[in-house]
Amino acid sequence: MAVLIVLLATFAIAALSKQVLSKPTNYRTCGQIAIASMFIFAGISHVS
Known about the structure:
The structure is a single chain. The protein is built from two helices and no strands. By secondary structure, it is an all-alpha fold. The protein has one domain (2-47). Helix 1 packs antiparallel against helix 2.
């Protein structure tokens, strides 16, 4: 469940930061950032 929260929170942060920086929001890029951070979080949690 924590991995899902990381995924959604990272996606929201990436989308909001793209809008604040006045760049066109590319949701595919935001999704790629979110899935990468989710994989990193899941990998770290499996090791420790």
